[in-house]
Amino acid sequence: MKRYLRLYFIFFRNCLIREMEFRFNFLIWTIMDIIYLATVLLGTYLIFGHIQEIGGWSKNEVLLLVLTTSLIFDLLWTFFMVNLMFFSDLVREGNLDFALLKPVNPRFIVSTRYFEFDHYVRMPIIFYLIFKLVGEIGISPSLLSWLLYSISLLFGLLIVYCFFFMITTTNFWFIKIFNFSNLFDDVLDVARFPSSIYKNKLKYFFLYFIPSAFIAYFPVEILLGRRSWETVVFSGLVMFFLFIVSQKFWRFALKHYQSASS
Fold it and tell me: pLDDT tens digits for the chain (262 residues)?
């Protein structure tokens, strides 16, 4: 474990040093991310300019859902998604060989080698807006509720990571067959709206098959006092299940990997 933590720190430091070499590019992307957040929030305000609620959720509650989804988006891109985006290149160019030959878990390397720092300003803004919205809604979550909300967010983060890791692993057979970033954005777009707006089989499809509800819907409902610790336990079990399944699928896929040099 100590060796993996040391490697993680080295990866983080190297990526930060590389990012600082192109500071203007770093600044531009940071500004673009803030503009994107403002655009998403503005879109929500425009929707509620014509209606009073969506699926029983008020404007401030939906805004809380949107902000939580944006927070997950930033965390995923900071720690995981940039690695998954590069995975098809590793397979196509044969550079995955170097990861497989190293004396560490190859999944650890392909999942944590790179970091993206564009969101370092936007995340504190989101945290501030979340606390402000909670006050405007008129609720006073206990310390336990905030803790359960945070744990649920962590489980949601790992659930989405495992889900997209399995999709990324199909690059062993299908290289560049779809636009990965567009698929990711579509899932997050679904997560920005209450899952209660979906009916019948469609609701279960977006709840479990595409686990969008775990991204923000369940954590926000915990914060609003509509769900309790059982939901956190359920999210933890789903996360554990998906991790095991994704690990087994990863090992199965590795057996079908053919190096670019083979």
Answer: 788 888 888 888 888 888 777 777 777 877 887 888 888 888 878 877 777 777 778 888 888 888 998 888 889 888 888 888 888 778 777 778 887 888 888 888 888 888 888 778 888 889 999 988 888 888 888 899 899 999 999 999 999 899 889 888 888 877 665 555 666 666 666 667 776 676 666 666 666 667 778 888 889 889 888 888 888 999 999 999 999 999 999 999 888 777 655 5
Tell me if 114 sits within 8 A of 15, measured CB to CB: yes
Instruction: Show me where the domains of the chain are located.
Output: 2-254
d(CA 232, CA 230): 5
Q: What is the pTM of this model?
A: 0.85
CB 115 within 8 A of CB 12: yes
CA distances to 3, 21, 71, 78, 177 from 252, in Å? 26, 39, 33, 28, 20
51 touches 76 (CB < 8 A): no
